[in-house]
Design a protein that fits this description.
This protein has helices at 2-20, 29-42, 50-65, 70-95, 181-187, 214-229, 234-243, 251-259, 270-289, 292-295, 300-318, 323-340, 348-361, 369-374, and strands at residues 105-119, 124-133, 144-149, 160-168, 190-196, 201-204. With 375 residues, it is an alpha+beta fold. The two termini are 47 Å apart.
Length: 375
Amino acid sequence: MAIFQLCGRATAWLDDRFMEERGRWLLWVPVALACGIGLYFALPEEPPQDWALQAIGATFLPLFFLRRWLWALLPAAFLFFAALGFGVAQWRAEAVAAPVLAKSLLSVRGEAVILDMERVQKGHRLLLGKVTLTGVPVAETPERLRLSVKKSEGLSPGQRIAFRAGLHPPPLPAIPGGYDFARSAWFGQIGAVGYAFGEPEVLAEPAADAWRGALEQLRQAVSLRVTQGMAAPYSGMAISLMTAEQNALPQDIIQNMRASGLAHILSISGLHIGLAIVILFGAVRFGLAAVPALALNYPIKKWAAAAALAGSAFYLGITGFPVPAVRSWLMAAFILLAIIADRAQASMRFVALSAILILLAQPEALLSVSFQLSY
């Protein structure tokens, strides 16, 4: 009898401690998701497809039966979200599945549409979609290619081009535990990488409704305008801060910035998003405050927050949606939305919510250094 009383007191004490921490329960959700996602990527081989559903089902049922005992419900909820993370990672890997080049092709002709362009020291690095390769069956043709082009004059996103190139499967890690480009390429649906021989031929210009390439064309126009208006290497620094194209900077400057510990300035992340929001928010609010009729009768702070939210989203698009910038913008967006909704602006919940959204949308981001440094 004494043992049952002792157990009852222990469970009551645990319930009280858990209730005291109820404001932090949400902070453990991304931790649980990350545990499940990490378990999936740590497996030596692809698990059966029904593992995820079985794990989610097996951990969801206890939530119903243990709902009256908080000391048991919260650990069960942690296991449920871990199983959910495992399932999201497996489903994501299956959803992006695309053909990967089986062997190297030293010379092959093909056609593709330019999806993205990244400036490098000599030419551009192209991301190509809607690929057709001569002599390669459609079922074995990669969904996307990453192609280095030295002669890139006249190329722009949205164009369909013909090329002759040497293609190779995405490379595996150079050393055990090293960066796995093949894994990153899998989630980007990049089935081959290579280099073009000569200058690609433009077969068709972007369609009038090809809005997908409009933003990339704007990025290229901004880079070109900066290059024409500023001398190197200053233009390269401006381009890297405005459009996230670091390859516009000479390698010696990049190495010097790495050696001095300032390389993070070149990566569009919280610093840049924060500056953009502060400038937009301050400019709009102070501008509206200069008009007494508006400042005294309308919520100009909310207007400024809305303008900063929209403007920072546009800046995020100009930078090409890099992962660190997306994370920073999500956290800033929660704060701006809290201002608009008259809620508290400072909370760790915003960090947890942004991590949850990223892990659910892109579970592979867990393995990136930028995600780990951010969270």
